[in-house]
Give the backbone structure.
Amino acid sequence: MSLIKFTNKGIYCPRAEVYIDPLKKVDRALITHGHSDHARRGHKRYLCTHASKPILRHRLGKIDCDSIEYHESLNINGVNFSFHPSGHIIGSAQIRAEYKGEIWVVSGDYKVAADGFTEPFEPVKCHHFITESTFGLPIYKWDDPAITANQLNEWWALNQANNKVSIILAYALGKAQRIIHDLDPSIGSIYTDSAVEGINSVIRNHGIPIKATTLFTPDINKKSLVGNIMVATPSIMNADWVDQLIPYDTAAASGWMMLNNTRKRRNVDQAFVISDHADWKGLLSAIQATEAENVYVTHGYTDFFTKYLRESGWNARVVTT
């Protein structure tokens, strides 16, 4: 019996009777991180890292959730599980499973370049490695995080000099906190929408420091935002009060901003290539560091990336989760 199987409910460990980031309702779920495509409602029991636990409860409501330290070993029916930093967002983890010397690692989502805020990616040696390939094409190549941080602050400072409000659109969990970490508070004040501030509060309450932010509400004097910046989810652009902030400049932060057609579809003034996933070289370096004999590719450019891995000497195949 294989230690790990790929089923219609997701990644399954039959011996331990647990699923990792399951797609459908299960009795016991091991969760790599708090994004909704990995942490879903309806499971009877959850296990995640300590930093992910308050995030899961914030997003999923009242759940039966246990948590574990990074590197701490937990034996479930003879299988040893441990969680290791994936560098994706706060609390994100790769999950290592070992039984009788056979080692699997489920990477979840990951990035290998340290951003100064998230726990840095940690290579874990194994025989079998399950990897994402969200940006599994050679065209995807990220700049050093310090470079994009400087670009972001230069854009904000220019808008301030022109008496504009800066609005940068990002995911509420992960990307928003990384952007806030990169912002220079000496330029001005940082505002957030309710979705971003809700996650900020959860993370702060867990003891992880985040730069000072102010929750924007429609009753705030709009003139107070002139020269300052708002970090918010894209949905705010549909709000009636946004027009009251004119003149403003908008920006989007995503790895997809590498593509010109994506920039046009987002209809923003500025695009920043900032991703919480590994780029092409990051994916390859992560896989090489595991020394895995078998690689399983999921999410993203699976066919192309798998073909490249095979041609480069890895025993790789596409899996559906």
Remarks:
- The two ends are 19 Å apart (CA to CA).
- The chain has two domains: 5-139+277-318, 145-272.
- The chain has a mean pLDDT of 95.
- The domain at 5-139+277-318 is CATH 3.60.15.10 (Metallo-beta-lactamase; Chain A).
